[in-house]
# Entry
Amino acid sequence: MFSSTPMLIQYQEIKNSYKDCILFYRLGDFYEMFGSDAEVASKVLEIALTSREAGKGRRIPMCGVPFHSADNYIAKLINNDYKVAICEQMEDPKKSKGIVKRDVVRIITPGTVLENNLLHEENNNFLVCITKGENSFGLAAVDISTGEFYTSEINKKEDLINEVLRYTPAECITSKTQFELDQLPNSVKISYHYDYAFKGDYCKKILLEHFNLNTLQSIGLENFPEAIKASGAVLDYLISTQKNPPGNIEKLKIYHIEDNMYLDFATKKNLELIQPINIQEKNSTLLSVLDKTVTPLGARMLKSWLTKPLVNKEEIQNRLNANEELVNNLDLRMKLRKLLDSIYDLERIIAKISFGNANAKDLLALKNSLEILPKVKTILEQAKSYLLKQTYEQFDDLNDIYSLLEKALYPDPPFSVREGNLINDNYNEEIDYLRSITRDGKEWILKLEQEEKQISGIKSLKIGYNKIFGYYIEITKSYLHLVPEHYIRKQTLANAERFITPELKEKEALVLGADDKLKELEYQTFIMLREEIKAFNFRILAMAKIIAELDCLASLAQVAVTENYIKPEISNNTNFNISNCRHPVVEKKLAEQWFIPNDINMNSDNHRFLIITGPNMGGKSTYCRSVALASILMQIGSFIPADKAELPIVDRVFARVGANDNLSTGQSTFMVEMSEVANIINNATKDSLIILDEVGRGTSTYDGLSIAWSLTEYIHNIIKAKTLFATHYHELITLEEKLNGVKNYSVSVKEEGDDIVFIRKIISGGADRSYGIQVAKLAGLPSTIIERSKDILSTLEQKPEQTQLSFKETEYKEEMLKIKEIQELKSKHELNTKQGINTKQDINSKHENVLKQLEKIDLLNITPLEAINTLYKLQNSLKSED
Ligand SMILES: Nc1ncnc2c1ncn2[C@@H]1O[C@H](COP(=O)(O)OP(=O)(O)OP(=O)(O)O)[C@@H](O)[C@H]1O
# Structure
């Protein structure tokens, strides 16, 4: 379409291959965008849209961003779901004849970013790929900013979706013919890759080439065709976007979801492991309590531990023992944490080195981190626990790499790699030589300044430098009469004149020539140094993992000490016995009160299904969750908030807590609740732990009760998983007599006259009432409503079969009349307004205010209680103004 100028012809040719990207076309110091790309980008980036001559009097839209600040603009486009193709000049414009050669050097997509401003230190940036085979799904997850690469084969679709969500992917790729992605939440950004990249043979070839293997057997992948497809396709996507094989990806780890504790998305959300339910309350997550890591490496690993607790007894025990040693050995813990604190994000530095983006400051950060490693090793020498001892034995202090950097790298290099001061003295002879010339030359110029001052007697004489004139002698106007004759005038300023001398120019040629050469040579030497370090990538990455693990263990130990946690025992049978168990997050949030700890005892026999009843706000949810969190904590190797604990290893934890709306997926509260319950039923085993909190409350009382009842029977009789069920359906407590494994518990409460005091102790036996009205009173509901509620409650208690209430002779009736009255008033007002009658003078402002508020009420979505409450307020506001 822009066929008329050579540059635009070139642009169009390149753009044709990158139609789905915004093309950043390098033109001198700018990246330019043309046509529809310019129209889109100018809006998103809020930059001026101009136009450019396209021949034959036509103009095309154009906008541009400076090359040196492109990162921020790219970030904005990526965050707005665009892909960006970076097209560079492939030759020096000064040396090229005709149009400069250009090509796309990289495509940036959300899952392939390496830019600091698009990455979060404490989060991975996973690119996930999914494939669909006849009997299973393939999944691969890769983070090029850290070098991690995982793959798995999964049978059930729900498990696949759950696993995709566990990675919180920045981008998810598949092929258009592979998979219907309608089941993934909208938050997952989907990209499609070419169909050919998902063919088994092609994927195998890509993997063998990348990992330099003859067979996939050595990495355990041979018998997993879908995992091969997913990992091959994702690698192909990386190669095609980065235009290079990702040099920091050394290993592909195949895993099976049952290798770890299974936590589905709803459970992680309901237990607030990583993300708070209320986004504002960042410190209501388990992670916020546990994360005392001091490196980004550790922070990312801890997050991954929390979403994938262990199930292998030996591994759990090893972590617990290491943790215990770090808890008890203060010196070891403190010194370790202090040393780790100085270690930079090695994984992200290595990614930058691999993709050729690392500058000298990055290498300096690497050098400074490596300097710490031998000290860490020395500290670990005293360790006695298996895991720490093993870490000590495997510890590679990378001293050779440190020595190389120490020798080669300038001690305080700049960010830019083009301005010199990158390479140390005594590393490269030619650099030393050129540096001495520029240093000497600069000294010579300083000396000349002194001499010229003395000879001419001009005190303000100074020698300066700029890019246009090079070196010059500047003399202020008041001394111009003293200027020696051999000075040659070059420039006149408002206050001064600038001169040169032949001698000065001669020296300048020498200094600047050497300076240019030095900068170029330093740059080339730096690139070579970076390549040399690249060869050590995998050794450094292996140590990064060890550092991350030490950081996690030391963080858990630190929390155990400050929060007073204890080491749990792994139960030899399937019994749960925890004395004085606390909720790790709630206990920290209680400002002035003490957290009341509670015991928990469960076995596989007559104590496996606990029904917990009692007042609202009594602490039922908190109790149930604290048990689930204790299991998760132990299985990540952490101590737990209790006085003594013995826990079995559970294969899965499920938590169905509260009723959450999920309007974004078009599901009602009840639908979400039931699908979460269905997931539990389909996946729980006798070795699982299930937390049910008020299941059934999203529907009518009898429907809800019936579901809760039959769910209890099913879990008790068929699944046999350990279960804690917090409920307001007191009818369920009769199940204790019918089902052998069911036991009733309740939260105790003290009645003080008409009021209640929460004791928050869990006691044996069921509760027969919820004290909802007392809690409503505590919450500040008006006394009219409280009193009326008591009336209704006593009627119901006398005639429990009565489901329809009559509201004769009550305040409620009066209030309903009031509604009618006001609504009539409102419609009269509307009618009058329609008929053009000016009623404003008749209705004073307070009525108008009430009417406005009434108008806002959405009658279809308001409960009777809310309606009464609102009316009460409105009536009061009318009364108070009278
Ligand atoms: N053991 C405890 N010690 C001290 N405070 C507690 C304890 N358990 C709960 N709380 C406090 O009580 C609040 C309510 O607890 P929780 O939500 O567990 O009650 P609940 O019985 O499940 O209520 P509802 O039936 O209304 O859902 C908590 O947010 C916390 O502030």
User: Anything to note?
Assistant: Residues 502-534 form the longest helix (33 residues).
